[in-house]
Automatic annotation (TrEMBL):
Domain of life: Bacteria
Classification via InterPro entries: DUF397
Domain DUF397: from-to ranges: 11-63
Species per Swiss-Prot/TrEMBL record: Streptomyces corynorhini
Protein name listed in UniProt: DUF397 domain-containing protein
């Protein structure tokens, strides 16, 4: 399925509840039909990454597995 997106400015962006505090490594996400869009919270006009819903669900599921830290290289 292909979703045509003319603008991501009107999307409802959200951060993980784990993104609190003064951390500088945050991403924001927004949902579209069949996909999830990710952007850098410090560069909201920068590039966006689009993930198929099943790929995003697999990624988030992996973060919830025992022993997963959610950090690269950790």
């Amino acid at each position: 399925m292909v979703t045509v997106v003319r603008s991501t400015e009107t999307l409802e962006w959200f951060k993980s509840s784990y993104s609190g505090g003064n951390t500088t490594e945050c991403v924001e996400a927004a949902r579209l039909p069949g996909s999830t869009v990710i952007r850098d919270s410090k560069n909201t006009d920068g590039p966006r990454l689009f993930f198929a819903q099943d790929a995003w669900a697999g990624f988030v599921g992996a973060l919830h597995r025992p022993g997963a830290s959610g950090r690269l290289g950790a």
